[in-house]
Amino acid sequence: MIYAQIMAAGVGKRMGNTKLPKQFLTLGGKPILIHTIEKFTLHNDFEKIIVSAPNEWIDYTLDIIAKHELEDERIKVIEGRKERNDTLYSAIDFIEKEYGIMNDDVLLVHDAVRPFVTKKIINDNIKMSKDYLCVNTVIPAIDTIIRGFNNEVVEIPVRDFMYQGQTPQTFNINALKKSFNLLTNEEKKSLSESCKIMHLKGYKVKMVNGDALNIKITTQHDLRIANAIIEEEYWKEN
Amino acid sequence: MLNTVYRLVSPGQIEAVLVEENITNDAVVICPTHLSICNADQRYYNGSRDEKILKKKLPMSLIHEGVGVIVKDFSNTFKEGDKVIVVPNIPKEVSETVAENYLSTSKFRSSGFDGLMQEYVFSTPDRLIKVPDGIKDEVASIIELLSVVVHSVDKLEKIRNKDTESFGVWGDGSLGYLMANVLFYTYPESKIYVFGKNEDKLNFFSFVTETFTIDSVPKDLELSHCFECVGGAGSERAIDQIIDKIKPQGTVAILGVSEEKVAINTRIILEKGITISGTSRSKFSDFIKAIEYLNKHEKLKKRIELLISNRIDINNIHDIHIAFGRDLNIRWGKTIMNWKI
Q1: Which of chain B's residues have a Cβ under 8 Å away from the Cβ of A123?
Q2: ipTM of the predicted structure?
Q3: pTM of the complete model
Q4: Which run of H or of E encompasses B188?
Q5: Which residues of A touch B112 (CB under 8 A)?
Q6: Are B114 and B34 in the same domain?
């Protein structure tokens, strides 16, 4: 089975004074989260599409899904947690309790605030998850990456080998669970990147190509850019 | 629903554009799988259309010949996974006198309206036709062109005289090849002659009565009805030869598209009482008929497979450029893009 998890549990710390969490802000006439869920409903590979929302926003999430007539029985809204990896783990818990976990079950995890994800990126993740226990979506780094400490440059890695991580990220559920359980509390707190859980425990992580358009809408500026790049369907004269 | 559309913004330049699609109660979402490059698309891509036309029509997604798979059908007409042909002509009114493919109000994909080079294609069920089992995806992607041929033959059938002794096809390209095939099955008793510039291409027409290069047309040959499948700069010479070789009161069907105006010897047309018919687009029912042809004639499917010269996997915009570049340089047949974006 292949499960999708849409990470919508954030409360928008980086979005400024917005009251609504960023995943609920309007993009081209609809909440960002709805755009993202719609993209996933077009993939028949998914057994369930799990939406992890903040506890106090679960009803709101259900309301907007109903309002936008997303009538897909596969959509399940569950409670997310404060930290990303806890939210990830809560989806695994949910799958285990509701459906049981088989050895080759896969979880494809995507940020709710990346509504421009494409069919190809999702398909490539699914395809690669057959050969790898962990798959990460990346794009080549455009800017030079600099590692620094105390305002001093420590290292300037060769850019050709640098990539920027996007989502989806895809995991064999059992392998992820095993890796997660092996993490120390310190590691759990420091890991902002889910693939790193498996990478730290020695698993090979396959990279698939993302897309520069697959942006993460994190700031008001991002939202303005995202709204600006959406075009209306149009007809021209024959 | 958000969709990535690959639009030609200027000749040789394609951009991915995010489009918000409006979902209506009868919307059908199709994942394109096999797209066939037509000369009309190629003319936009390589900039051989008039600059004013390019300015008016671009940016626009190309391709109007293709098949895809149903991923979501809000109208409950198709099943998920059904293979469908997307009919590019979209009528906006019903007329008792003018067919949908000739109405000036009809929209046409990749001619003023986004074509099939998209992540998902959004349609209505009345513009989709399920591909029957037994027709390969690649062959199905060419059915649009076959439907134009079928339409032209149908139209000629309604206006021709009783003489069906012989048919002439001018053009040794894909259109001429499909035309010769349809005539071969429609008029099994008739003689079919094909005229072209290239002997190597004429060699593919193994099933017709005879082929001639345009420089070696027998003087005494006379034809009942003729089809012009040349287009472009060669159109004029082809029509001139047709007018010369056609019997009095014969019918000429013109299918070749030309950017420039074509001079026609009207004196001989008047003298011989020739009827002229024109076609470049087909209507929904022509697709159904084209599929019937394929189902009825197994050999036709095989012959159409011979038309497919290039098969190119498309994973990104760079691959689209490769496909159009190779298509421009092929001697024979069609380029099919295996659409994986």
Answers
A1: 340
A2: 0.86
A3: 0.91
A4: none
A5: 235-238
A6: yes
